Amino acid sequence: MAVDHSMPVLVVDDYSTMVRIIRNLLKQLGFVEIDEANDGRAALAKMRERQYGLVISDWNMEPMTGYDLLQQVRGDETLADTPFIMITAESKTENIIAAKRAGVSNYIVKPFNAQTLKDKIEAVFATPATEAPAA
Questions:
Q1: Beta bridge partners of 86
Q2: How far apart are CA 18 and CA 96, in angstroms?
C-alpha cells in the first residue's frame, strides 16, 4: 500500500524541539495533517477524538511513556490497528524486543534524518494488512 500523505499523523514527544524536528521532517516528506501531544496521556485523549493514520512517539516521557501508550493503543479495539512508530535514543535490544512484542509497527533510534523516517514509514505501509502484529 502506498503512503497516503494526506492522512493525519500524531507526533508524541515531551521535548518540544524534537516535536518541531519531526514535524519539519514530515512536512519535507509531504505530510500536511500533523498534530502533536506532549505525553502518552495527551496522545491517547487525542486518538480517542480523531482517527490517525500514523502515530510517531518517543519512548521516554512522563507521566505516560511511549511504551505505555503503545500498550494502551494495542489494547483498545478502536485504536489497535493504528500504525505506530517508536522513537528512542536507546538502542537496547531488550527495548526493541519489548516494543515488538507490544505490537510496534516500526522503531527508530535517534539521531535520524528525513530519509530514515521516510524508509521507516514506507516499511510500515508496505506490510500487508493480514500480517498485523500480535497483541
A1: 57, 107
A2: 20
What are the backbone angles phi and psi of residue 87, rounded to the nearest 5°? -120, 135
Could you tell me if 35 and 46 are in contact, meaning their C-beta atoms sit under 8 angstroms apart?
Answer: yes
User: What is the pTM (predicted TM-score) of this model?
Assistant: 0.91
Q: What pLDDT digit, counting tens, does each position of 35-48 carry?
A: 999 999 999 999 99
Beta strands per DSSP E along 16-126: 34-37, 54-58, 84-88, 106-109
Rounded Cα–Cα distance for residues 31 and 39 (Å): 22
Q: How many CA within 13 A on the CB side of residue 62? A: 0
Residue count of the chain: 135
Quickly count: other Cβ atoms within 10 Å of residue 72's Cβ: 17
Could you tell me the three cell numbers for 95? 527495548
